[in-house]
Amino acid sequence: MQIFRAHVLVCGGTGCTSANSEKIISELEKNIENNNLQNEVKVVKTGCFGLCAEGPIVVIYPEGSMYTMVKPEDVKEIVEEHLLKGRIVKRLLAGDTEADDVSKSLDNVEFFSRQHRIALRNCGIINPESIDEYIAYEGYKALGIVLAEMSPQDVIKVVRESGLRGRGGGGFPTGLKWEFAIRSKNEQKYICCNADEGDPGAFMDRSILEGDPHSVIEAMAIAGYAIGANQGYVYVRAEYPIAVKRLEIAIEQAKEYGLLGTNIFDSGFDFDLEIRLGAGAFVCGEETALMTSIEGKRGEPKPKPPFPAVKGLWDKPTVLNNVETFANIPIIILKGAQWFSSIGTEKSKGTKVFAIGGKINNTGLVEIPMGTTLKEVIYDIGGGIPDGKKFKAAQTGGPSGGCIPEGHIDVPIEYDTLIELGSMMGSGGLIVMDEDNCMVDIAKYFLEFTVDESCGKCPPCRIGTKRMYEILERITGGKGEEGDIEKLEILAKNIKSSALCGLGQTAPNPVLSTLKYFRDEYDAHVSDKKCPAGVCKSMLSYVISDELCKSCGICARNCPVDCISGEKGVPYKIEQEACIKCGACMEKCPFKAIFKNA
Amino acid sequence: MGSVDCCCRCEAVDEKKQMLLEVIEKHRDRKGALIPVLHEAQEIYGYLPINVQKTISEVLDIPLTEIYGVVTFYTQFSLEPKGKNKIQVCMGTACYVKGASGILDKLKEKLGISEGECTEDALFSLEATRCIGACGLAPVIMINDDVYGRLIPDEVEGIINKYRNEELK
Question: Under the phi-then-psi rule, with left for phi > 0, alpha for psi from -120 to 50, and beta for the rest, what region is A299?
Fold first, then answer.
């Protein structure tokens, strides 16, 4: 094997790829050749590092220097200075990694030091398109141990004792799910992986598939052995082209190495894997709907029981886990149940990956031990709110979850604590909102999502969410009526108790949680016809201050509907009737003389 | 977009139909073949006109009603042709709270079309789409396979013009 003196790791996740990291890789390779370093330095395209806000990211080892927001034109300097002369390019170092003359190792960066990477252990470290690199990091060792030394019952016992719960939303104990499936006697069983990550704002499953696809393949084979299944399906969103491609490559490589297929490790165990592409239906994240979709039908959910462990895909016993859940399995086998259950809290073991986004400085992917407080995630890891704005709420659990207000920011993040607050863990999207976000508008946003994604099978979801949406539209449109809020509450209660599947049962949560914590904002919309955050257009007006206006006329020239008039020496005026409240005038005014009246 | 079958009623089938038949052949023995076939058929035609669905129905022996039901259930499948450049505005939560609606409004204004529509010259189609997972770059739009991130409404016109100019070349 060739030894290199330096490794240049370039993030090839979706975020960095869209910020031109492919170009950086080709520039690196070109410049390394030009300097005749190709036998000393190796460029590795890795998965996501997590710090998407600062992308594209380049990390150079052995120093561990992390360069952020690298542009193709910076590459020449990196190669000539760092790789050739050994001088770190300080101006490109990540914000707080610069210390004296050397760069701090990544473990000392606040963003990373508070994390505990288990599911993301290989993301950003190995080349996801190389099975050898995965194997070098103990890849497929767990599968080997399982097949050589453990009975299916042993495997399930380890998973049960680890306390691992489903990372896709519901938090059902994984070991228990597997046990139900082993008890269902049938010659044909299936393992499915839910990679239909539909929760807006969550992208950890995609990052795992892009950064470490083999860990999911290995875990699915382990699960197959544990419950007695020989066939697996990965159901992945078609909107994730990079993830699909890397998964295809990984499956191909695993087959080549005999780690998938017949008689794996000479154990007599066969396991095969197929990819199925989703087609853009959020409801297919629900387990029974996902299986119906794999069968080639409309992805509508089915009533439970029977549960999939008894009667799932093609009516056979099936275990469905999500990507992040699977990514935890190999390392649990290697390090043991006790190691895993020592991380986290009493009822929530291990770690959880969150995609933090919205009004926060360090948007990206973080993996934290369960029990970390929301405050630590937002301020210590996330770097706080940009532009000195005030934190208002954090939304977790997507369209099934809710908003956590400032008063509860010290909550330790666990399955049960979040549910108590009217939200839920969900798949791990965490969107931060500041004072400029209107909570009624956010509730409406999620309801619009559910109305659109409701499959239409059961009336409470199909009709009920639509009625809720109409009421919210009325309220945000400045036409809210007395009693509207109460109607919302009644509808919410009824939909929760009568909808067929998880999508409908949780659809009212965004409304209920915003009502719980921000009822005054709803009241202001309905009673005073005011939107305190200044978001709902029907309730705002733009005005020009007579004192500050210099009559330059820039606002009038930028108004798309020509409703601003004035002349030299006289302050300009906005004709309110005609104004479409686009805000273009306020954006363009060089004297900041235009204000938004909420 | 030409018709699926040859218009002169000769024996020859057009190239696209040949590709479609090959795709169906490749998948027909798989369990649950319909959705993979629809995905690839849409890649060939750009959308799924009723003639294509009929062909799939005949060869796979699945009732047309069922195929139509599947096609209309999933947002990825389209019964209408798309523009040459497919603009998708991400409406995920992260993009939404960072002003995706403003970007969408600007696109509508500059293109003169609404969501789900195609410009008259068939150069652009516009869609509001689900989270594309580039939340770190919010707000983002995707044109074909290229992602444009950290956008402000004023940048929209320049991006559209880039594609218009390419067309003129």
Answer: beta
